[in-house]
Design brief:
Bound molecules: alpha-D-galactopyranose
CATH architecture of the largest domain: Alpha-Beta Barrel
Helix content: 10-25%
Number of strands: 27
CATH superfamily of the largest domain: Aldolase class I
CATH class of the largest domain: Alpha Beta
Oligomer: single chain
Structural class: alpha/beta
Strand order of the largest sheet: 16-15-14-13-12-11-10-19
Largest sheet: 8 strands, parallel
Length: 517
């Protein structure tokens, strides 16, 4: 028998050990991903007393079902009360879930209060019953970059569970969205996803992993969360599953009767139908059709255009009744270009306003599957500093905040990036402004966003290879005199500053501040 050296024995034992533990628990010296090597947690843990989060304004359409779970941190049980709630709406005081029918057209100013054994909080909330939805950028989760064509009903339910248990819902995440691959496909390597595309009445068929869509949306709604679905105006989706072509109305009615609250409408094989026609009319045609159908439904369905920015969609997305539109291709293919994608998206800032959002695609941190091979989720190799910058950019740009990673593997570091309520408040600001980029010498830039309370949120970004000093001069952001500065990631007041604020910003990272008025 060959004698194995102690060194190789240790190596073999380590390998056996590693094959049973998730990568996130790998020890130093064996394997460490860059994001773990510097995973400094900036966001203080939520306090035990209630802190009510979420948007200050909320749009909905009169007569339609209403569902809103008050986002609130703090130790449960929390007792909720709401002053001034229209009589058509009812609050469950123990869950903070408001349901009912949207009252008639009008603005309803309510006061939300939350109390637990440690303290209490209150926050104003305006319900605007009218035409517009998504008065602040939609927040939620989408399955794509975690589960691709492996998605199941069970995973969707699990994501909804985790949205609650992780505290994500307590800072405002609410949409639980299925992406592609819930339908049947004419051809797929998993026979469970192959079957009739439609029944003899033309009704779209789900694949075997989605046996009960109403059951699924009920499950999500019972938690006070909302459900999203995906299709394409073409005959097939990007993944090769049934599309809505020539069944647009039938499918939209089906989605509404299943109880969905969000539709991502992905161009894909519609390219074959549009053919060589690259006119604006050709780009708009399928989106106008679906937009009008969605608007006529007796359900509020947020409409998300996914056509990668063709025909300058930011100029007409709102006209076709959409609330958000992708401004570029799939970010999963260019995660090394976060800054470039964001800077380009910010060029369309004039089109960002309440109910109309430029969408540079999902937040892909934590455990995500490589987009090039539709891979099984792995821990992101993105440096920690860049993850802070990523989230800061999306918040300063008022982009939809849709997380797309494996919810079952959310770790403390990823949650700290996703769930800082002060950073999210910048994203959800009622003004809906997308920040303005001011380039600095070398690899630095700042992004400035005017907030509705008269203050300004500023991100000081450093794309360089080394830590760099970045300054924001009051004069360049139309300020003068002394102003208070708060570090939003650390949730810490830094004092009052005259003329400028300067920070040491890590390589690929950010310092994000709020400057008092
Ligand atoms: C396109 C979209 C992605 C995703 C896939 C699904 O690539 O841009 O976001 O929805 O299709 O097939």
């Amino acid at each position: 028998m060959k004698i194995v050296s102690i060194k190789s024995m240790i190596a073999i034992m380590a390998l056996i050990y590693l094959s049973f533990v998730p990568v996130s628990t790998y020890c130093a010296g064996i394997e460490i991903s860059p994001s773990e090597a510097t995973n400094e947690i900036y966001t203080p843990a939520p306090k035990p007393q209630p802190r009510i989060n979420g948007p200050l304004v909320y749009g909905c359409r009169p007569g339609n079902p209403f569902l809103y779970r008050i986002p609130c941190q703090g130790v449960r049980p929390i007792q909720f009360t709401v002053k001034g709630l229209p009589s058509e709406l009812k609050l469950d005081p123990s869950t903070g879930i408001i349901t009912g029918k949207v009252p008639q057209k009008g603005e309803y100013e309510v006061l939300i209060m939350a109390q637990n054994s440690k303290g209490k909080d209150k926050r104003k909330f305006k319900i605007v019953a009218g035409d517009k939805l998504a008065l602040t950028p939609p927040m939620g989760w989408n399955h794509w970059y975690a589960h691709y064509d492996r998605i199941t009903d069970k995973m969707m339910r699990e994501a909804a569970d985790v949205m609650i248990s992780s505290g994500m819902a307590d800072v405002g995440y609410s949409y639980v969205n299925i992406d592609d691959c819930w339908m049947n496909s004419p051809k797929h390597n998993d026979p469970m996803r192959v079957g009739p595309l439609r029944d003899d009445k033309g009704n779209i068929q789900t694949n075997s992993y989605f046996p009960d869509m109403n059951g699924l949306t009920n499950y999500i709604h019972n938690k006070g969360l909302k459900a999203g679905i995906y299709t394409s105006p073409g005959t097939l989706t990007c993944g090769g599953f049934t599309g809505a072509y020539q069944h647009e109305k039938q499918d939209a009615l089906q989605f509404a009767s299943w109880g969905f609250d969000f539709l991502k409408y992905d161009w894909c094989s519609y390219g074959k139908i549009a053919g060589k026609d690259k006119s604006l009319e050709a780009y708009q045609k399928p989106y106008i059709l679906m937009g009008n159908i969605l608007k006529s439904l007796d359900r509020d369905v947020v409409y998300n255009l996914c056509q990668y920015g063709m025909g300058d969609v930011w100029k007409w997305g709102a006209e076709v009744e959409a609330q958000c539109w992708r401004t570029s291709g799939d970010l999963g293919f260019e995660l090394d270009r976060i800054f470039d994608v964001a800077l380009r998206n910010s060029e369309f800032r004039q089109y960002s306003k309440p109910g109309a959002w430029n969408d540079p695609d999902y937040i892909q941190i934590g455990w995500i599957g490589n987009a090039n091979k539709m891979g099984i989720p792995e821990l992101t190799p993105m440096p920690a500093a860049m993850q802070y910058a990523y989230m800061s950019l999306w918040c300063l740009m008022a982009s939809p905040l849709i997380y797309s990673g494996d919810m079952s593997k959310l770790d403390e570091f990823t949650l700290n990036i996703l769930c800082n309520p002060e950073v999210i408040e910048v994203n959800q600001d009622p003004n809906g402004e997308c920040g303005l980029v001011i380039k600095q010498p070398n690899d630095q830039f700042i992004m400035v966003k005017n907030l509705s309370d008269g203050s300004k949120a500023v991100g000081l970004f450093n794309r360089g290879k080394n830590t760099a000093e970045v300054a924001v001069n009051w004069a360049e952001i139309q300020l003068s005199g002394k102003h208070s500065v708060r570090d939003l990631w650390h949730q810490k007041d830094l004092g009052a500053y005259k003329e400028k604020f300067t920070a040491q910003v890590p390589s690929q990272g950010v310092v994000m501040i709020k400057i008092g008025k």
